Amino acid sequence: VRSAELCSRYGMDFIEAANIAAFATELYNKEILSLQDTDGLELRWGDGEAVHELLRKIAHREGIGDVLADGPVEAARRIGKGAEYYSLHGKGLGAPSDPRARLSTEAFSSFINPRGSHISHGGITLIPRNRGQLERYARKVGVPEGEMDAVLEGPEGFDVPRFTRYCEDYVASMEFLGLCVFPIFQRYGIQIWADLYSTLTGIEASPELLLRAGERVWTLKRMLNVKLGAGKKDDAVPERFLKESVKFGGKEHGPVDKDYMDELISRYYGERGWDTREGIPTQDKLSQLGLA
């Protein structure tokens, strides 16, 4: 809590700050960063005081803080010595969800999000849910009854690419209504938000209208990335997740299968009406959304 408060006072995103602090701590414990590199700061796991001092250094760009303040990509480049392997990020933002223990919609979206790995993505988290819970959540995010069986099938209890698209559109609609996407707001379905919007503004809105607007937002962000040269190569899982196992929940989970992930990403592009090879929105989809 103290670390989060310090980030707020320093004007830093606490999720990004937590990631970069963990990155630095791991490099120190693997002796990639020395005591001299860290300005004498011993970065041991669980040492809150060391983290607080590291956050201060980052905020003021002092010593090692000046290196880390540039983010996970540039910091790893400057540090060298294999630091890039331990730099977990998606498109330069360092908060990817780990897909190894469970490929949730949140983890999947964190790699394909046009913004990069950020909390502003979709939906179902690491905790397993039963069919009834998944159905309730699917209704809240606007999955039509006729699509329910198709969405809620697959090894995770749901079709990851298909469900991710619905969750992302819902999250986008929450964001442009000025709402936080954390769980308390996820307890209310899209119908309630549409009713509140209509009541407060006098502009008639339906769940379909809000979700279509969310789809427009997501597609427009993708088009901006495409214009700047981004493609499927950038929708990548960090190398570490493809090579290392992880222990979670008393079990050991193997690395992510790259071919399987590539297949899911292509299917996700298709769900969005984008070109399945590079994820470029098609002219038909742009016309449907009024973005042509």
Q: Specify the number of helices.
A: 15
What Rg is obtained from the alpha carbons, in whole angstroms?
20 Å
CA-based shape: globular
Q: What fraction of residues sit in β-strands?
A: under 5%
Order of helices and strands: HHHHHHHHHHHHHEEHH
What would you say this structure looks like, in words?
This protein has 292 residues and is mostly helical. The chain has a two-stranded antiparallel ribbon with strand order 1-2. It has 15 helices and 2 strands. It starts with a helix and ends with a helix. The longest helix is centred in the C-terminal third of the chain and has 21 residues, at 207-227.
Topology:
Elements: H1 2-10, H2 14-29, H3 48-60, H4 64-68, H5 71-79, H6 105-112, H7 131-140, H8 148-151, H9 160-176, H10 183-186, H11 190-201, H12 207-227, H13 239-243, E1 246-248, E2 251-253, H14 258-272, H15 283-288
Antiparallel strand pairs: 1-2
Helix pairs in contact: 1-3, 6-9, 9-12, 9-14, 11-12
